[in-house]
Amino acid sequence: MLLRLSKNAFVRQYGDFTYVLERVRCYDQMFMDAEVFMRWITRVPMEKSEVLKNICSVYVGADENEIVRDFDEFIAPLIDEKVILAGETVEEIESQEISFSYEIESPKTMDTHYIHPEKRVDGPIPQAVLDSYFAEHPTIFELQMDITQACTERCVHCYIPEYKPVFLPFAQIKKVIDEFRAQGGIGVTLSGGECMMHPDFDSIVRYARSKDLIVGILSNLTLCTDDKIKVLVETEATVQVSLYSMNSETHDAITKRPGSFVTTKTAIEKLRKAQIPCRISCPTMKTNYKDYLDVLAYARSLKMDAQTDFIIMGKMDCDTSNLKCRLDLTETRHILEDIIFKSVPINSEYFAPAKKDDIRSDEEWGNAKVCGACVSCVCLDATGYYYPCPAFAGVNLGSCYEHDLRWIWNESPETKRIRAVCGKDFPKCLHCPDRNYCSVCMCRNFNETGNMFEPAEHFCKVARLNHEIVDEKQRRMLEAAKAGKR
User: Fold this and answer.
1) What is the value of pTM for the model shown?
2) Which listed site, 17, 296, 309, 379, has its alpha carbon 20 to 30 Å from 63?
3) Is 389 helix (H, G, I), strand (E, B) or coil?
4) CA distance readout (Å), 79 to 10, 94, 123, 236
5) Do the bridges between strand 278-283 and strand 46-47 make them parallel or antiparallel, or are there none, so unpaired?
């Protein structure tokens, strides 16, 4: 029997843990001490007998029959989940490969933010073990590369200060991708500006995929030609795009590019036809806050994932002129009520009544990390500087021209500083009654106040609203439960 890793499966070793992800079926799992069993299962078919021979050569003196039994038990669920393909011939194995498709009832359009190990809630490895491991051993899962500052649009809410025609050189991009892969990275996201403006875009996507990485594209799709679509199909890339309204005038007023609605919508539908996983985001602001439900309905009609997002933050250089388009509190209440009462999908995580039992004490919250910046992700801008997370370019972790990624991740003083931040570093938040209804964000704080530890007042007010609405929903749920018992 031949064994081969599926084209959709990705395996990484983190300490004693083996992380396995199958992205089409959205399967992920962490295994303890499984590295030897997975070591010889690659994308090249190998006879099962050869795999077992290699495994037995590691465990010298062990009972080979017991090894065979353990191995069969280990790979059986992975074969069921199409992580490992098994067959008597190469042709039989190839016939088992599955590809993403919109033709099934519920296609899983996984975006570039995969099912991280630290977010698992079930499986043989307890959540507490995972949390403890990754807290003690920060590991790069994701890298976002802003390969250019240039853009085809001038969106009114954008946090990018300038749209200079700066392009990160392809040679440097390859070097960084190599370093990222060597660090155990699993997914690289190409962004900008508009990443498709980069003269080497096609080659960058192909190179990243050749390194056994999941490739994600953040794009407005205004340059998504048929040739670009062929590259995305070839590399099995995923795409995220913003669509602001189903009204062309409204969308174009936000992008400041006449005709952008038609161009973007046409490209989205071409991605759908080409079976490319695409997620639609609808950032909501004054111009379009009554339109987002239509965008979500449009996405559902295409069987694409979609969410809204009303978190408009200041620019990365602390210029807040773009916040004029941000929703006021009355408008924000309407969106939050939709999210909490109608389960409208949102790009940010807000508090639901079901989580009230999980509220942490002040001490627990104070000692906990507030986000994954420099714990599981890092970003690189078009000038070659690393920064902690998307939009948080006010903190410079170091240059890719001066240091390799291993130094940036393990030795950079700024990386260590950001990684050490926890709840108690936000004294105004520590005892706030709305703290558990808020996503404390160093980036939002910095971009709006110039100080990552100084809460942006607007989001404090949003947290208060969130708290009120969640309490109202829980009150209704309790009343409904009591009425049902009568």
Assistant:
1) 0.91
2) 17
3) coil
4) 14, 14, 17, 22
5) unpaired
The residue whose two tokens read 């950001």 is 418
User: Could you give the 3-state DSSP secondary structure of residue 38?
Assistant: helix
Q: Which amino acid is at 56?
A: C
CA–CA distance, 406 with 372 (Å, rounded to integer) = 18
CA distance 254 to 205: 28
Pick left, alpha or beta for residue 267 (phi over 0 → left; psi -120 to 50 → alpha; otherwise beta): alpha
**Predicted confidence (pLDDT) per residue in 43-66, tens digit:** 999 999 999 999 999 999 999 999
Tokens of 397: 């972790």
Contact 380, 391 (CB under 8 A): no
The answer to whether residues 401 and 171 touch, using CB atoms and an 8 Å cutoff, is: no
Give the tokens for residue 60: 């010298």
Cα 369 off chain centre by: 18
Which helix (H) or strand (E) segment is 442 a member of?
A: helix 442-449
Please compute, for residue 221, the number of CA atoms within 13 A of its CA located in the half-sphere on the CB side.
Answer: 26
For the chain, list the domains and their CATH numbers: 2-94 (3.90.930)
